[in-house]
TrEMBL record:
It comes from the Eukaryota. Residues 43-306 form the Amidohydrolase-related domain. InterPro entries: Amidohydro-rel (IPR006680), DHOdimr (IPR004721), Dihydroorotase_CS (IPR002195), Metal_Hydrolase (IPR032466). Belongs to the metallo-dependent hydrolases superfamily. DHOase family. Class II DHOase subfamily. Its EC number is 3.5.2.3. The lineage of its organism: Eukaryota, Viridiplantae, Streptophyta, Embryophyta, Tracheophyta. It comes from Gossypium raimondii (Peruvian cotton). This is dihydroorotase. The keyword rRNA-binding does not apply. One of its GO terms (biological process) is 'de novo' UMP biosynthetic process.
């Protein structure tokens, strides 16, 4: 969890950055060398892709994280439990031989998903959530939902019965809505009505980007409404897209927002609230698909994500508290139970 305070056990911890208090070595600024130890965290929003790209990127997440919620937006998407099981096997084969990384699988919700598929997913022991992509919202979302209440309500009702969380890409796709307003409009037109209709449905609003999303999550019932937060949305604002020229490697969806929104998200994750989870949304693309005339959305951050999260906490003086380490540890316990 991004905001848990615990005493990490040596058996769980791994070394990160340079911070043990040791007066025997001095920097050129005469400050003591430091070594920081963090308990191994989980990543609650991760894209591993497939094929050669999966082989290239999976070891980076496995090096730093114990478990991860794996996104299902492949080509074709992971819409069935059988496909999720097969994809999980591909991920395990791509891991280093000594890795203990555990992929937690999800299903891609479509207009044709059946309630019975939710039952199969729950009983599989490997599928832990269902992902809602509004059709056309982001990478490989063309098969996403076009009518949530008209075509998916029986599935959502079954998810309540099976205690299966819904993970949400929270943006509308109406071209008449400004790209910087799509998260807020989604909250007002989709999420608010959804929670009012199905208050026992567990909903995770993923990769939140706005003050509006923070307020919405904080207004919901704990244990039924939460959010994941990426390192890029904690570190960058929308200026980062344009400084020094167009910056394709800072382009992701939802797109970066104003500085006031970034500050609101930082305040939320450092507040001690259990509603905000670590979710890197690490989303790799081949270089030629990022650096082109129509570059793909997504930031590959897996190798540096923990460094960036730690930077945010350090900057708000939250990293140390009487020798208690702030760590990033399994934030979704109540969503798993």
């Amino acid at each position: 969890m991004i905001n848990s305070l615990v005493f990490p056990r040596p058996s769980e911890a791994f070394k990160f950055a340079s911070t043990r208090f040791d007066g025997s070595r001095k920097s050129k600024y005469s400050k003591p060398r430091m070594e920081l130890t963090l308990t191994q965290p989980d990543d609650w929003h991760l894209h591993l892709r497939d094929g050669d790209l999966l082989q290239a990127v999976a070891p980076h997440s496995a090096k730093h994280f114990g478990r991860a919620i794996i996104m299902p937006n492949l080509k074709p998407p992971i819409t069935t439990t059988a496909a999720a099981v097969a994809y999980r096997e591909s991920i395990l084969k791509a891991l280093p031989a000594d890795s203990n990384f555990t992929p937690l699988m999800t299903l891609y919700l479509t207009d044709k998903t059946s309630p019975n598929e939710i039952k199969l997913a729950r009983r599989s022991g490997v599928v832990f959530a269902v992902k809602l992509y509004p059709a056309g919202a982001t990478t490989n979302s063309q098969d996403g939902v076009t009518d949530l209440f008209g075509k998916c309500l029986p599935v959502l009702e079954e998810m309540v019965e099976e205690n299966m969380p819904l993970l949400v890409h929270g943006e509308v796709t109406d071209p008449d809505v400004d790209v910087f307003d799509r998260e807020k409009v989604f909250i007002d037109t989709v999420l608010q009505p959804l929670i009012q209709r199905l208050p026992r449905l567990k909903v995770v609003m993923e990769h939140i980007t706005t003050m509006d999303a923070v307020r919405f999550v904080e207004s919901g019932e704990e244990g039924f409404l939460a959010a994941t937060v990426t390192p890029q949305h904690l570190i960058l604002n929308r200026n980062a897209l344009f400084q020094g020229g167009l910056q394709p490697h800072n382009y992701c969806l939802p797109v970066l927002k104003r500085e006031t929104h970034r500050q609101a998200i930082v305040s939320a994750v450092t507040s001690g609230s259990k509603r905000f989870f670590l979710g890197t949304d690490s989303a790799p693309h081949e270089k030629q698909r990022k650096e082109c005339s129509c570059g793909c959305a997504g930031i590959f951050n897996a190798p540096v994500a923990l460094s960036l999260y730690a930077k945010v906490f350090e900057e708000v003086h939250f990293l140390f508290n009487y020798k208690v380490l702030t760590i990033f540890k399994n934030a979704a316990t109540e969503f798993e139970s």
